[in-house]
Amino acid sequence: MNEIDFAVLGTGGIGRRTLEVSQHKEQLRPVAACDRNGIALDRDGLDVEELLDATEGNIAGDGRGDTDGPDAATDGGVATDSGGVKQTGEGAGIVASEQGEPTATPIDDVIAVAEDLDAVLIALPNLEHDFIPRIADRFADAGYSGVLIDVLKRSRVIGMLDERAETFEEAGLTFVCGAGATPGFLTGAAALAAQSFVEVHEIDIWWGVGLKSGYKDNRGTVREDIAHLDGYDIETARDLSDDEIEEIVEAHDGVLEFHDMEHADDVLLERAGICDAEDVTVGGVLDVRSDEKPTTTTVTVTGTTFDGERATNTFELGDETSMAANVNGPALGYLQSAVRRNRAGEYGVFGPAELMPGF
Amino acid sequence: MNEIDFAVLGTGGIGRRTLEVSQHKEQLRPVAACDRNGIALDRDGLDVEELLDATEGNIAGDGRGDTDGPDAATDGGVATDSGGVKQTGEGAGIVASEQGEPTATPIDDVIAVAEDLDAVLIALPNLEHDFIPRIADRFADAGYSGVLIDVLKRSRVIGMLDERAETFEEAGLTFVCGAGATPGFLTGAAALAAQSFVEVHEIDIWWGVGLKSGYKDNRGTVREDIAHLDGYDIETARDLSDDEIEEIVEAHDGVLEFHDMEHADDVLLERAGICDAEDVTVGGVLDVRSDEKPTTTTVTVTGTTFDGERATNTFELGDETSMAANVNGPALGYLQSAVRRNRAGEYGVFGPAELMPGF
């Protein structure tokens, strides 16, 4: 496959790590990155090291996916999935990099060069359900005909993207949704593990994340997770102040446990024909005060074989693998796969499990 | 994806189970099957149930992949991976089915209808290294431009197929090699598990197979495995009589343990860019006197993450899943994926890990 030129929207925890991991992938060349205040663009490939050094602990955005700024009507703004130190004012975020240029319209600036892009990875929080779908609209409206890929988690957003499938098909756009760790990596693992069976009864995805050193860079992710706690939803989580989030974390001694999450794995596995969405359960434990995982990330798939045996296949991640490692490697793998699909003329909306061998 | 019409060469243990499992896959329609004595052909889809009932315990072939018969020069013969009861004479194998017609040239008969086929699954033993490559030659020479897929195990055969890559590309033929359980299912699992890492140090594939009830149907497989034992190789295993094989099995009390097998997983993972072939080890335990697995089939992938942590990811198959379940589901999954590649204009030789998302 030829080289893939790609852009990253958002340079919070996920966006920055995506850029970092892409340096290990020969075929991938990051040529653009943006946050709410600025854009870095180099068609010969960004100097990722300089960009990361300049933006570490210096993130534009507070993890709320805020699009209500003065330029929201024209550009939608670019939030990041991170809360950092220097969040506002001169020198915030990407403009602190030598490669960054300030702009009031970062997404439009990326769209302006989109015809040179093979893929755009959307590393933005999605606390408004339709935030990422609306970004996709803007790319489609502008005639972009490459790959869009996100790492979103919410089941209901998939439906919003599906409503746009025809538009994407007409535009020649291939959208891959939920291509991070979970959904994403673990959805793919579940689809693979299901291959022993002719009928799948139950898929259980259970994750552990230790986020002490990455806590500040991943507040957007923590905020999204809090929306899954009893008593909270996406709207209430979005309205929480940073102090209120700290109080919730404090009240749980830094360890948040989640059950029956509305994680898109369920609809993504159903789309791929693996099982019914209702047979998928997702939960996990997040510890923001330790980098050690509070529990082992495990996917179990229980089904019946063609010869009538009931069994459970298991996929387990080593406890030393960070969330960042399990998001970004798979996301870039799915990105490459999506570019191949796109070049072969396959357009529309795909989940990670649909990019697995034709299972 | 549109419906896939496919043929199976060989109706031994693997071929028959492939037909059976395909009944659970909506998009797959088996339209042809052959063994050394006959062919069954129905463009509207074979009656798989009738075919299986008629050929159960009634297999043409002795598991040696014998191509030395009188018609070898013109047709190469079709062996199966199985030894059965009524192996020769009238009514042996597929001709026992109402759908079966006797023929002296079964492979040529399939080639004669190949333009109607999207895929051909080669479920034949490969005790002569170049047996399957030579079958591929015949399809390519006849202008077949679909998918050929096999479940072979031997590393060195991949090289022989690679030598033919250009011929396949010119013919518009997509060849997928080693798409059974191991290599195949477990190679794919290793490729997936490697996604946490930017460098993979070691992949260990360890399988357990209990084959009591399937022993008679899978003598070809057992013979191939014996070739991996100390003191044997592919040539000596091929020359063993059934009695000699029984003696070997007896001497091991029915339990054969294998280490450092020349299993194609190593070269297939290297092809896909996952790790070096020498970092892959394959071994396992075969028990022909019990259907219970003598050990749990496990894939472990050890690597280093982008953030410098060394860890091991693990994929484990439930002990109740039979070899047949783990061969045929994945083989048909890879077959579907290969047809998609073929239709998109991707020709040549692929391993299972290359059909995974663009990892």
TrEMBL record, chains A, B:
Catalytic activity, reaction form: (8S)-8-amino-7-oxononanoate + L-lysyl-[protein] + CO2 = (7R,8S)-8-amino-7-(carboxyamino)nonanoate + (S)-2-amino-6-oxohexanoyl-[protein] + 2 H(+); (8S)-8-amino-7-oxononanoate + L-lysyl-[protein] + NADH + H(+) = N(6)-[(2S,3R)-2-amino-8-carboxyoctan-3-yl]-L-lysyl-[protein] + NAD(+) + H2O; N(6)-[(2S,3R)-2-amino-8-carboxyoctan-3-yl]-L-lysyl-[protein] + CO2 + NADP(+) + H2O = (7R,8S)-8-amino-7-(carboxyamino)nonanoate + (S)-2-amino-6-oxohexanoyl-[protein] + NADPH + 3 H(+); N(6)-[(2S,3R)-2-amino-8-carboxyoctan-3-yl]-L-lysyl-[protein] + CO2 + NAD(+) + H2O = (7R,8S)-8-amino-7-(carboxyamino)nonanoate + (S)-2-amino-6-oxohexanoyl-[protein] + NADH + 3 H(+)
Span list, region Disordered: 57-86
Keyword check for Transmembrane helix: no
Keyword Transferase: yes
Location of the active site: 153 (nucleophile), 224 (proton acceptor), 228 (proton donor and proton acceptor)
Annotated coiled-coil segments of the chain: none
EC number: 2.6.1.121
Pathway: Cofactor biosynthesis; biotin biosynthesis
GO terms under biological process: biotin biosynthetic process
Domain of life: Archaea
Binding-site list for NAD(+): 10-14, 220-221
UniProt biased composition (Low complexity): 70-84
GO molecular function: NAD binding; NADP binding; transaminase activity
Family matches, as InterPro entries: BioU-like (IPR044262), NAD(P)-bd_dom_sf (IPR036291)
Record-listed Allysine modification sites: 153
Alphabetical UniProt keywords: Aminotransferase, Biotin biosynthesis, NAD, NADP, Nucleotide-binding, Transferase
Protein task: A 'suicide' enzyme that participates in biotin synthesis. Catalyzes the formation of (S)-8-amino-7-oxononanoate (DAN-carbamic acid) from (7R,8S)-8-amino-7-(carboxyamino)nonanoate (DAN), a function equivalent to the cannonical BioA reaction and the first half-reaction of BioD. The cellular requirement for biotin is thought be low enough that this single turnover enzyme supplies a sufficient amount of the cofactor.
Family: Belongs to the BioU family.
Self-association and partners: Monomer.
Other comments on record: In cannonical biotin synthesis a pimeloyl-conjugate is transformed into biotin by the subsequent action of BioF, BioA, BioD and BioB. This enzyme replaces BioA and performs the first half-reaction of BioD.
Protein name as annotated: (S)-8-amino-7-oxononanoate synthase BioU
Annotated source species: Natronoarchaeum philippinense
